Amino acid sequence: MLVIIPINALIAKKVKFLQMEQMTYKDERVKMMNEVLSGIKVLKLYAWDPSFKNQILKIREKEIRVLKSAALWNASISFLWLCSAFLVSLVTFAVFVMIDERNVLTSEIAFVATALFNIMRTTISIFPMTVQVTLQFLVSYRRIDEFMNAEELDLNSVSHDESKSDPLIMEGGTFSWGTSNEERPVLSNITLKIQPGQLVAVVGVVGSGKSSLISA
């Protein structure tokens, strides 16, 4: 059993990396689905649904490939631990007989030892499930920790001044939605002033940043 533990540790490490990769693909797929559902009218209007469908299926194929690999590694962990009880009993009986010629493997010794090994088998069978749950916990904990410890938004970037007559003023605004400070801004040098009761229309070609401006 001590020999099997390092092997399972290596397999568990591999499964952990696969689960992290699978969660990355899952986040990308969910993000794409949210964009599709939020803009379904535009997708149908311009007949973009086949293109987005292919993109989502490509991400899903990558996710399924990682899930299959993780399932195979998890199955190998379960197989090793299920075989460990038989291997332990086999090695124990072999060592018992070989270390001393006076040791005779009688039915009394064999049945008692087998009963003890069967008691151990129940505990051993739970171990693979414990490993899988622990790995899922570690991956989830790391993702939550990264999210909770992410950089806070700059509260000074937006101010509320009731003395201004205009309800919305934007001067030299720069907006980006990435996590890196070096990422290129989506919108830059945006100046906008909207007066009370004024009707404003945002017009532009596809991809010019109309939705990004509204989201900002």
From TrEMBL:
**Gene3D superfamilies on file:** ABC transporter type 1, transmembrane domain, P-loop containing nucleotide triphosphate hydrolases
Instruction: Indicate the transmembrane segments per the record.
Output: 70-99, 119-139
> Superkingdom of this entry's organism?
Eukaryota
Q: Does the keyword Repeat apply?
A: yes
Stored InterPro entries: ABC1_TM_dom, ABC1_TM_sf, ABC_transporter_C-like, P-loop_NTPase
Asked if the keyword Thylakoid belongs to this entry, the reply reads no
User: What PROSITE patterns does this protein's entry cite?
Assistant: ABC_TM1F
Any idea where the ABC transmembrane type-1 domain is?
1-136
Q: What is the name attached to this protein's record? A: ABC transmembrane type-1 domain-containing protein
Top-level taxonomy: Eukaryota, Metazoa, Ecdysozoa, Arthropoda, Hexapoda
